[in-house]
Specification:
The structure holds 2 protein chains of 2 kinds. Chain A is built from 11 helices and 13 strands. Chain A is α/β, with parallel strands linked by helices. Chain A has 2 domains: 217 residues, P-loop containing nucleotide triphosphate hydrolases (Rossmann fold); 89 residues, Alpha-Beta Plaits (2-Layer Sandwich). In chain A, the strands form 3 sheets. Chain A has a 6-stranded mixed sheet with strand order 5-6-7-3-8-9, with helices on both faces. In chain A, strands 11-12-10-13 form a 4-stranded antiparallel sheet. In chain A, strands 2-1-4 form a 3-stranded antiparallel sheet, covered by helices on one side. In chain A, α2 crosses α3 and α2 packs parallel to α4. The relative contact order of chain A is 0.14. The mean pLDDT of chain A is 85. Chain B is mainly alpha-helical. Chain B folds into 2 domains: 110 residues, D-Maltodextrin-Binding Protein, domain 2; 238 residues, no CATH class. In chain B, 69% of the residues lie in helices and 5% in strands. In chain B, α10 packs antiparallel against α12 and α12 crosses α14. The two termini of chain B are 25 Å apart. At the A-B interface, β5, α2 and α4 of A face α1 and α11 of B.
Chain lengths: 309, 409
């Protein structure tokens, strides 16, 4: 796939604190690339450096298929801190944003109406922004960022503050844009959403890379199987079961973290008959758990993964 | 440049569609108009009320000279003769208004004291007006002495103090409204003053616009399409056009009224080369304050939380109004000269001085304008630096220390 954007060895400090340490990744045409990380990890700082709103202390940001500088007209950007002018009409602001990108106005108007309809905002084009609800405002901002058919779309926390229905609409639209060849870079801390849609991810903590790769790679590398058992059992009993790395127990629920290369069916067959099972569940560790693990600096999962690697 | 113009066009369109702005646009001239009309109404009613009925009990045949004197000074008096005695007059006056009794008898010629009785309500200037009658009466007293005409002339002429300095002449232009030579200079000055005032007031909206942009959190979206410099210039230029629209609306009201009320060839006075220079100074003033406002606006989270520092900066344009008195009183004086070289006061002071001074101090003028242009350049640079960082700082005001750091970076 064609690389649209390359970030190489990005460094940025605020006062004495290093906000970004040697961040490198690239974004390709037609893929969704996610930057994940807890609050304050450096996601927005990375994005702001890419957008030229901040300047990195070191490192290079290269937009391919472009001469010098940031191809502002080909980028759509939805910042984390976002809003709209209050006392203007929805259509006026959308056309202004398109005009700033040098997009033809008649085409912009047509597309704006299409998108408003798609996002359930039909007939709102002449309503003042201040009369919209927060969710509606978010949708208008999103439309504003994609109206000019950008080649690269950068979304900073696009799902924050959205209800599940709107999240679904956004997800679908972002997916569709990627399928049509738009390169998409999004940041989020909502793992479940990202897990469902991203192709590759870059996880960041304390301004440093933690994981970088495709979703599948990450899952095979970090996401071992785990077995959740509901029922009263002694922790020492469970730890004796073969191929169990670690057990977490909470009241009557025990989570058994399994070794990397197990066969789930074989492993179940070898369970001792003495343990109480009211309910049993086997699944892979989710991105969410990996994220929590990293965010809380436990790094247990990672160590486990490396131990097996 | 294209983006600057787009931002400017947007600011203009956004404000012209905003009801508050449109109401304000017409309210400003309406207020001017109301004050003007109230002023002239009070003036008119004064004129009607002052017509005073003056009864003269004339025992010395001074009636004709009194009439002449009243006409000469255009006193608003109805002069009638009476034969009432002083006691009768007192009774009569108890239920009268704007009436006076003057007793001219032998005593006047002997002692020079005239008995005057007035009603309780009387024009406040009557006591001064009545003194004017002293002149013909004094003449009559002197005539009694049987002197030659020359001697009489010397005696009755008295001594006059005349101020011969230039300043006196130039400062009285305010009162001597009929002096057309002065008006020729006042009209362009007034015009430039109105422009400066209107665009500085509109320019203060830049300040609000910049801080509102932060509050609405749209700055970052806009900055993904334009550079901070373009956004700032667009705002400055946009609000300049809005200010000019305000001036045009103001003049649409003011010029017809001025033509109708003042009956002077105002348009003729207005279209002179001097107007161009004065308007140029006004525009320079706008650029300076616009740069300051846009920079300061970007450092503030919200209008209501402005700190002392920001408040002080907001007052800068009004310093020239504060020192208007001394500057107009002595346009070549120390205060006027020094404040011409201080960029914050220069636009206002220069306009005031050029309006009042007959001979323009060209060297001073050129230096002052040069200082002004250099400071505009510096302040635009500084504002650009502050704006770039400040506009993306959410939720808090910048301290002067922080602003200093941004400037140095």
């Amino acid at each position: 796939m064609e690389v649209m954007l390359t970030v190489k060895d990005l460094e940025k400090s605020f006062k004495d604190k290093k906000a970004l340490k040697s961040i490198s990744f690239d974004v390709r045409k037609g893929e969704i690339m996610a930057i994940l990380g807890p609050n304050g990890a450096g996601k927005s700082t990375t994005i702001r450096n890419i957008m030229g709103i901040m300047y990195p202390d070191q490192g290079a940001i290269t937009f391919h298929n472009n001469g010098n500088g940031i191809p502002r007209h080909k980028i759509g950007y939805l910042p984390e801190e976002r809003g709209l002018y209050k006392n203007v009409k929805v259509m006026d602001i959308l056309l202004y944003l398109a005009d700033l990108k040098d997009y033809p106005l008649d085409k912009a108007k047509e597309r704006a109406l299409q998108y408003l309809k798609k996002f359930d905002l039909e007939g709102k084009e002449n309503v003042a922004v201040e009369e919209l609800s927060k969710g509606m405002g978010q949708k208008v901002q999103f439309i504003g960022s994609i109206l000019h058919e950008p080649e690269l779309l950068i979304l900073d926390e696009p799902f924050s503050g959205l209800d599940p229905v709107s999240q679904e609409i956004f997800k679908e639209e972002i997916r569709k844009l990627a399928n049509n060849g738009t390169a998409i870079l999004l940041s989020s801390h909502q793992m479940n959403l990202v897990e469902e849609m991203c192709d590759r991810l870059f996880m960041i903590q304390h301004g440093q890379k933690v994981i970088y790769g495709t979703l599948d790679d990450v899952k095979t590398e970090y996401a071992n199987f785990k077995c959740t058992i509901h029922g009263k059992n002694e922790i020492s009993e469970l730890e004796k079961i073969p191929q169990v790395q670690r057990v977490e127990q909470n009241d009557d629920i025990s989570i058994l973290f399994l070794e990397k290369d197990i066969q789930p069916t074989n492993w179940i067959k070898n369970l001792p008959e003495s343990i109480t099972v009211n309910e049993l569940k086997i699944n892979r560790i989710s991105l969410h758990e990996i994220f929590i693990d990293i965010a809380t600096d436990k790094n247990l999962l990672k160590e486990a993964g490396e131990a097996n690697a | 440049m294209r983006n600057t113009w787009k931002v400017a066009k947007w600011e203009i369109k956004r404000n012209l569609k905003n009801k508050t702005f449109v109401i304000g646009l017409f309210l400003t001239p309406a207020l001017f108009l109301v004050f003007f009309l109230i002023g002239s109404l009070i003036g008119d009613s004064d004129g009607e009320d002052t017509s005073t009925t003056v009864f003269v009990n004339d025992e010395i045949n001074a009636m004709t000279s009194i009439q002449e004197t009243a006409n000469l000074y255009e006193l608003d008096w109805d002069i009638e003769t009476t034969t009432l005695s002083e006691d009768e007059a007192k009774e009569e006056l108890e239920d009268m208004e704007d009436t006076a009794y003057i007793y001219l008898n032998e005593q006047v010629l002997e002692n020079g004291v005239v008995s005057v009785y007035t009603s309780e309500e009387i024009d406040s200037y009557f006591n001064q007006q009545v003194q004017l009658l002293g002149e013909p009466l004094q003449g009559m007293r002197i005539a009694q002495l049987g002197l030659s005409e020359e001697e009489m002339a010397i005696l009755s002429q008295g001594v006059v103090f005349e101020n011969q300095s230039e300043i006196e002449e130039s400062t009285i232009e305010g009162q001597s409204g009929t002096d057309s030579a002065n008006l020729e200079r006042i009209v362009p000055g007034l015009f430039a003053g109105i422009i400066l005032f209107a665009i500085v007031i509109t320019g203060m909206m830049i300040f609000q616009s910049a801080s509102q942009e932060k509050k609405d959190k749209i700055a970052e979206i806009i900055l993904s399409s334009v550079t901070p410099g373009e956004l700032m210039q667009g705002k400055i230029f946009g609000y300049f056009v809005l200010g000019m629209i305000q001036v045009v609306v103001l003049l649409l009201f003011a010029i017809p009224i001025a033509l109708w009320q003042l009956d002077l060839p105002i348009l003729e006075y207005l279209f002179v080369p001097e107007t161009l220079l004065l308007v140029f100074i006004a525009i320079l003033g706008y650029l300076l304050f616009a740069a300051i406002f846009v920079g300061i606006g970007a450092t503030m989270a919200d209008m209501s939380t402005s700190g002392n520092f920001q408040g002080m900066v907001m007052m800068l344009p009004f310093i020239s109004f504060i020192i208007a008195g001394p500057v107009i009183g002595d346009p070549s004086g120390m205060i006027a000269k020094v404040s011409s070289y201080i960029p914050f006061t220069a636009p206002g002071v220069l306009i005031m001085r050029l309006t009042t001074l007959e001979d323009w101090p060209w060297i001073e003028l050129i230096i002052a304008i040069a200082v002004l242009i250099i400071s505009i350049w510096i302040f635009m640079k500084l504002a650009g630096k502050i704006f770039k960082v400040g506009i993306l700082m959410y939720g808090k005001n910048a301290t002067p220390g922080e602003i200093w750091k941004w400037i140095r970076s």
